[in-house]
Structure prediction request, 334 residues.
Amino acid sequence: MNVEDRLGRPMRDLRISVTDRCNFRCVYCMPKRVFGKDFQFLERRELFSFEELERVVRVTHALGIEKVRLTGGEPLVRRNLERLVGMLSTIPGLDLTLTTNGSLLRQKARALADAGLKRVTVSLDSLDDAVFKAMNDVDFPVAKVLDGIDAAAEAGLAPIKINMVVKRGLNDQSIVPMARHFRGTGHVLRFIEYMDVGHTNGWRMDDVVSAREIIERIDRELPLEPADPNYRGEVAKRWRYRDGGGEVGVIASVTQAFCRDCTRLRLSAEGQLYTCLFATEGHDLRALVRGGASDAEIAQFLSSLWGRRSDRYSELRSEATVRLQKIEMSYIGG
Ligand code: SAM
Prediction:
């Protein structure tokens, strides 16, 4: 069965935040002044269990979900995540992937691959230790993330995508060095425009380095040409090195919004559903699941929610929307 929203968009991708906790305090995502020692994270019993998650994934898969991304918070800080991967990887035809900061990949990559994970996306914002540490704000060195990426490659979790969020004045000097470093490795580096997710990161339009500027800066030193999308609605625009050194991608969520192709549903760690990354309120799936609803009732809830969907926040972004009390990315999942 396939469901479409009010703008004719099918439900295809499910992003699951498996925990709201993270071992980094990236200044643009979980700033310490908000997510400090006193911050009240979710209690264990509030989190959807692996069994509950598997059930939800099976129901959504029957409604048209083809791809599931495990995220967070930092998904690898959720204990025994490989057990969930093992449960989800048995669902036929489901494309399963994971986004991580890479800090625990050296310990976890093999177990994840053995459990059936095929590929990963690793976030890395700079190769310069001083810049990276200023961004993650927990003194975490670049070398350990690079080692995590190597561990993922050794475990066969390929292709590896590397995500770099670019914030002007913070890490924009790292754009070209990152491109140079990952060129020719087979890993696909993708640059993400800094977004106004949540309401704690103090976002300003001036902080955004546009996808166009990012490509211009790389092209000046490492000539690029546009490449065709891999599939309709691909979020990242692809660019190829003219000398055959591979490709980079840019995710222009601010300057070239792609809401009309957005097929993503998001599930927070405590079982709230969101139909937009920039949503201000969720829909309580956990109450339904824990209240004894049947699979058919859950499916009905999901298709009716999706059928009412008309979100297109990024296309409507303005000074007024930026000030909305949007849900934090660490909670809803990136
Ligand atoms: N902890 C994992 C990680 O670091 O990849 C998964 C969760 S994290 C919220 C997912 C992605 O969102 C990361 O690549 C992160 O850099 C990105 N992100 C967080 N805040 C962002 C913002 N304000 N604008 C753009 N990307 C952001």
